[in-house]
Amino acid sequence: MEPPSRKRTKGPGRRIAKELVEFNKEVEAKLVAARATVPDATKEDVSEMTIETVGDDLMHLKVTFNGPMDTIWAGHAYELDVSIPGTYPIDPPKIKFVRPIFHCNVYSSGAICLDTLQSKWAGSLTIAQVTRTIMLLMQDPNKSSPANVDASSMMKTAGQWEARVKANPFI
């Protein structure tokens, strides 16, 4: 989905429009490079995520990504709901899993316990960068800051949490 022209938007909307343009340029460049060796490559083949507006609202985004191959998260698509505050990028976006995952750093509401989205937020971060951080958190949980006590206690028994996530990664 093409973002509205940056000339018609102001404040946080302008910043998000710019982020979407830059993200799409990055994906297009990867696609051109991939097609040099695989002529029928698609955007899905070269990008680890999609970022779209919900309707025409630049302050509400949907990010979708597949679980990384060779991890317990593989084989499933994950969707994030991103709400951009009027004070963005000074304040972080509100990001949650649409369908909550069984992870020690994800609340049952889908909200994510991640310092990057709270005390360690930096206005230079983009939605794509934060999404990559969330993807890394999925693979490398912060056990010292549990949001889901059941997942956290299951992690204490070797292999138990991994088996549960492989069987069904969602709450």
Q: How would you write the strand order of the largest sheet?
A: 1-2-3-4
Number of DSSP helical runs: 5
Give the number of DSSP strands. 4
Strand content: 15-25%
Report, as a whole number of angstroms, the end-to-end distance.
30 Å
Main sheet properties: 4 strands, antiparallel
Structural class: alpha+beta
Uncertain runs with pLDDT below 50, 5 residues or more?
Answer: none
Fraction of helical residues: 25-40%
What's the pLDDT, averaged over the residues? 93
- Round the Cα radius of gyration to an integer and report it: 17 Å
From N to C, what is the helix and strand string? Answer: HHEEEEHHH
Overall, the morphology is: globular
Would you mind describing this structure in some detail?
With 171 residues, this protein is an alpha+beta fold. The protein is built from five helices and four strands, in the order ααββββααα. Strands 1-2-3-4 form a four-stranded antiparallel sheet, with helices on one face. The two termini are 30 Å apart. 24% of the residues are buried. The mean pLDDT is 93.
Helix and strand topology:
Layout: H1 11-35, H2 43-46, E1 49-54, E2 57-66, E3 77-83, E4 94-97, H3 127-139, H4 149-154, H5 160-167
Antiparallel strand pairs: 1-2, 2-3, 3-4
